[in-house]
Amino acid sequence: YFFTGSRDKLILVWNISEVEFTVPEAYLPLESRHTCPEAVTALDIIGLTGKWDYLMAVGLESGQLQLFLLHPTRSDQTPAVARVVWSQPILFNPELCHVKNKRVRRVQFEPIIQSDQQLLSSAADDGFVKIFSINIGQLQNAVLRS
């Protein structure tokens, strides 16, 4: 899969499959889109193990940060086409985010998952780089309970 976020507030999931498709079919966005409350200016995603397959970090125009857990599913009728189940957005405490209305320019997870703790960095127009430690196990359990 390939994920894109844009100023029209949409995050799209694109089907980039190993299966042989014609070019137009291979690059159609799936029906699994998410609408954010404001323009998406940055995103990054990492693979997980467990019930949720991916963790996505999203940076917004306002300086706010959000996390989503994602799980692709396939239907029996059309096994080649996946649908992505999105968790509710996990919102960062605004006091920990960037200065209000200072656009997030970049979010990035550390490249290698070595434990249940994952580092996430973000940079914004406020001139700061913020680094967060995310406990993936606690995050998944909290989402399962909600």
From TrEMBL:
Organism per entry: Fasciolopsis buskii
Protein's recorded name: Elongator complex protein 2
Pathway: tRNA modification; 5-methoxycarbonylmethyl-2-thiouridine-tRNA biosynthesis
Cellular component annotations (GO), alphabetically ordered: cytoplasm; elongator holoenzyme complex; nucleus
Family: Belongs to the WD repeat ELP2 family.
Per-repeat ranges for WD: 1-17
SUPFAM superfamilies documented for this protein: WD40 repeat-like
The entry's keywords: Cytoplasm, Nucleus, Repeat, tRNA processing, WD repeat
InterPro entries in UniProt: Elp2, WD40/YVTN_repeat-like_dom_sf, WD40_repeat_dom_sf, WD40_rpt
PANTHER family for this protein: ELONGATOR COMPLEX PROTEIN 2
Biological processes per GO annotation: tRNA wobble uridine modification
Subcellular location: Cytoplasm; Nucleus
